Amino acid sequence: MNPVAEYFKGIYDGVHTALIGMGITFGHLFTPAVTVQYPDVKMVMPERVRNRLYVNMDDCIGCDQCAKACPVDCITIKTIKSAPDVDLGMTSRNTKKRLYVPQFDIDIAKCCYCGLCTFPCPTECIVMTDVYEFSEYDRSNLIYSFATMTPAEIETAQIKLKKADEEATVKKAAAAAAAKLAADQKAAEGASAPAPAAKPAAPASGDKGTA
Q: In tens digits, what is the pLDDT along the chain, a chain of 211 residues?
């Protein structure tokens, strides 16, 4: 192909390609738009969507099952055993609460949104919500703390537990001492008791009595 023909062919190809693109553009000018004008317009999330986690601490019993099920270890839970005389109440599913939960943190930056933590929860207090807008400039702000106990309440719970443990230790030691004393007294009584008198021997079968 001579240079002149090649030159005009290049012009033709360029114009032809531009016209094809413009034809597609003009075609979309007369069709309904499908773009969602986010954030002014937001799409409705499906019912079973898995986004940000939420924990209802009123129903949490501190069983740690969700943290054990998490494949990326993004859940941190700490508990304090309640004293025997403290009633923590019941959950909405009539489960007895026996542990304080001073810490329940979820690092949502690590979360892979698998939903595995929600299945083993016996009280269904941890759920996945439809909240998907929680971007932050600081990564530490993506650690969500759900525990509601104040530092004063945590200290009080620890003091009560320590006191209850000390009282239980004293009672256990007293019971052990009483049991040992009773055993020693029983052993002493057995040692001081008189030996039983020997029984006379029975006469032989062939012996005769004296007149």
A: 688 788 888 888 889 899 898 888 888 777 777 788 888 888 888 888 899 999 999 999 999 999 999 999 999 999 999 988 888 999 998 989 999 999 999 999 999 999 999 999 999 999 999 999 998 999 999 999 999 999 999 999 999 999 988 888 888 888 888 888 888 787 777 766 565 655 665 665 555 554 4
pTM score, two decimals?
0.67
Are 78 and 71 spatial neighbours (Cβ–Cβ below 8 Å)?
A: no
All structural domains of the chain: 53-149 (3.30.70.3270)
> CA 142 to CA 80: how far, in whole Å?
25
Per-residue exposure over 69-108, b if at least 16 CB sit within 10 Å of its own CB, e if not: bbeeebbebebbbbbeeeeeeebeeeeebebbbbbbbbbb
